Amino acid sequence: MESIILPIVLGVLIGVAIGFIVFKAIEKSKGKKVLNSTRKEASAILKEAKIDAESIKKDKILQAKEKFIELKSEHEKVILSREKKISEVEKRIRDRESKVASELDKNKRLNQSLEQKEKDYDFKLDFLDKKENELEKMHKRHVDMLEQISGLSAEEAKKELVSSLKDEAKTEAMAFIQTSIEEAKLTAEQEARKVVLGTIQRVGVEQAVENCVSVFNLESDDVKGRIIGREGRNIRALEAATGVEIIVDDTPEAIILSCFDPVRREIARLSMHKLVTDGRIHPARIEEIVKKTEKQISQEIIEVGKRTVIDLGIHGLHPELVKAVGRMKYRSSYGQNLLQHSREVANLCGIMAAEMGLNSKVAKRAGLLHDIGKVPDAESELPHALLGMEWAEKYGEKPDVCNAIGAHHDEIEMKSLISPIVQVCDAISGARPGARRQVLDSYIQRLKDLEAIAFGFTGVQKAYAIQAGRELRVMVESTKVNDTKASELSFNISQKIQNDMTYPGQVKVTVIRETRAVNVAK
Predict the structure, then answer these.
(1) Which CA distances in Å does 3 have to 8, 10, 17?
(2) Where are the alpha helices (DSSP H) in 202-261?
(3) Do residues 427 and 504 lie in contact, with contact meaning Cβ atoms separated by under 8 Å?
(4) Which has the higher per-residue pLDDT, 28 or 244?
(5) Backbone phi, then psi, for 38, in 5-degree steps?
(6) How confident is the model at residue 314 (pLDDT cuts 50, 70, 90)?
């Protein structure tokens, strides 16, 4: 069995070996073919690569040549510009050299001429000294001759001449002053009047009068007893909480609230209205209501200030100044509501500044704030104008506005055109008829003082203050005062009034000289 298997196995092995050898031969022939084709492809790729390299090389050479040409042209331009600048500099240097040479020549000639003029000047000085000596001698001889002829010495003649010239110069000066004033009035007064009247006509004004007393109306007199309380404890609590004197008298259905401070008076009025409406009136409730009302009034003051500022078109005002503007609603000046007065002055200032070509917004701002010194948080010894100026400076207002506030009553010097505008508009608002109450006694005294000033001058026969003290008519004796003296008298009286008295607006002084010839036929 083994003898049969061995030959079979040997045969199979030999067959496998022969197949392997044949396979290797076939593979070898195939590899040679692939290698040949690969070599052909590689040679073709190399040829294409050489062709591409040559073309790229040519392109790069061309680009390099173009870049070189471009750089060369730019370099030539730079060189040309530098050469041009160098030539210009050389030209300027040559021009300067020529100018310097010409200036040197001029200076040389000038020095020569100055030397010659100096010689001429010295000669003329000597000549003038001689002439001056001769003139002094001649003047002395003439003075001696005049003293012999006139019989007066030089000093006496000089005094006589000075006195005569003084009287003549005074008369001419008065005439010149009067003429100048009249000429100025023809133009300046007309234009000023046009601006002022135009400003007044364009402002609508409300007339408001504040008192120190408010009347609280009641539905019936039965409420008075509840307001007074048991043994007067309610009314005492009200007075202590508000600082207002409450007067309950026989006036039907009314209670009087008396206080110099309008804010406290308004707090008392509103508190009483709330208490009467609620019906619960006792000391604890009174204190609670008064505190709430104080907060309400404080908030209302701020709101009033904001509304006023917005209505006038004023921006960027400090909150403390806004609050001060709101407090003006509860203040009065000579019976005129301070907020209404300040709004009126602000509008007048804006219009007048616009008419004069100035900044109307700055003028409005100064007009609104000009009286903030009248609503201080604490008492101050400063005048209200200076106190208001300090507040404005403290809260960052412009120098023009601060100066206008401080100078509107002439406490300080006016430094801008806004200041006289604020002063004039303040006078317009305060001096118009019905704006302010005026005490009768002081008004009459002012008229008497006007007439007394006129009687203080010699030659005055009669004097009448008319037109509510806006005009003073003076009758003079024709034998003691001539026409020239009448003009001088009018000027002197007006200056005396201006220096010695305080008054709103202007006072016109009219001197009347009348000559009468009277004869009786018998």
Answers:
(1) 9, 11, 22
(2) 222-228, 233-242
(3) yes
(4) 244
(5) -65, -40
(6) confident
